[in-house]
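Issue: ligand-bound run for beta-D-glucopyranose - logging full I/O for the record.

Environment: standard queue, default settings, no custom constraints.

Inputs:
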Amino acid sequence: MPAAGFSVSASAGSEFDAKITPIVVISCFMAATGGLMFGYDVGISGGVTSMDDFLIKFFPVVYRRKHETKESNYCKYDNQRLQLFTSSLYLAGLTATFFASYTTRNLGRRLTMLIAGIFFIVGVIFNGAAQDLPMLIVGRILLGCGVGFANQAVPLFLSEIAPTRIRGGLNILFQLNVTIGILFANLVNYGTDKIHPWGWRLSLSLAGIPALLLTVGALLVVDTPNSLIERGRLEEGKAVLKKIRGTENVEPEYNEILKASRVAQQVKHPFRNLLQRRNRPQLIIAILLQIFQQFTGINAIMFYAPVLFNTLGFKSDAALYSAVITGAVNVLSTVVSIYSVDRLGRRVLLLEAGVQMFMSQVVIAVVLGLKVSDHSDNLSHGYGIFVVVMVCTFVSSFAWSWGPLGWLIPSETFPLETRSAGQSVTVCVNLLFTFVIAQAFLSMLCHLKYGIFAFFSAWVVVMSVFVLFFLPETKNVPIEEMAEKVWKRHWFWKRFMDDDDDKTNGAYEAVKKAQP
Ligand code: BGC
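Outputs:
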């Protein structure tokens, strides 16, 4: 198999005339705040669920266990109800994203972001004011609906509005906001942990800041030309295209979008269409990327960093401190990805990270295996620092690879007619597996102990092999030209692009040929 067959990149000259205009950059910054909320929700749970005041109020059983010394180090937080608090958000999100698919397609990307913002605001009110467990869970569910809508619309918005040559970088602003949200949450928890007995309330309420930012942002941005044109608003779409590209010469790009939108309008059932053979490569890749992203084990670290470090015998403060360090590494390494994704390409980042993640996880498993026994109180100072350094090594490589690219690649590879349906499947699978990890992690930690890191490292090998052989390069390929420039040229996936194989492609081909 020739190495050249593994990847395909666009030939030079496929770029449309486009300047990097302030309106594009500002719109992307505002829309990307949708990621802040997702990140804040991911980051806040771990800290809150290790606060005594919170446990006493909502999970007294866990509180008692935490303070009983005879419980194994690895098992003291293993409680299904506590895990349900973390997980309910993801269950709500993975259901809501299918409604969001309808709104992104029929009402546009911008309005869908606005709906997300409103869900977030109401969810925050419920959580901050929670009097009992049901109220707490209702708040989490509303936040989950917000995540379902935001994660559906924001990555699509960013990929569509960005000029091709910096599409990767602008899309990763979403993930950058996710990481800032996680860090912000860690910092907040670090401070509120000392406020008794209502520090947890402050932690949950401060999510109002990202919620407001997204809502205001959604009111101010323009919708993407692709979405406007898809919904038949041709003149408006063209005007927006001229404005965001900073040029009058938008005809070639406009025609590409128009062609894609004519195909899209033929499609009455986007989800059924998604199952057609022609969409198989994108669908398989989108689903696998989400499963793989979660099976890197990142959320085992992110949700439970404070709990994990506590388990390892760090004192409560040191635990939050370590979580803040991993949070900062996460943010900074995402910036590396913004810089390099359109230069080095998606594949290089994923393959390099595979090696780094594998090595750091194996080392962590070995150190914990040798040095942490079930009931001993402490990892020695030196080993403690070593584990934190290895966790940071792992987090940094995730942050410039699977973190952002898990969101970028699906949002840029589906054709317009199935883009919102494809994104729903992406969000659904992502949240489903986030849920699985959130729900299972503490029990897995209790049973597998340090072996949990070996478990994730084996997955890293599988996903890296997949990238090597099956993931084509999409850097510098215009979003509406993926079929021609990527899938039809890929050594494996091109067999799905053989139009004659598929009668359902008839309408698609007819529309395509009728276009200039
Ligand atoms: C993932 C989240 C994860 C975060 C960590 C995101 O891309 O989807 O599940 O918590 O990255 O930075």
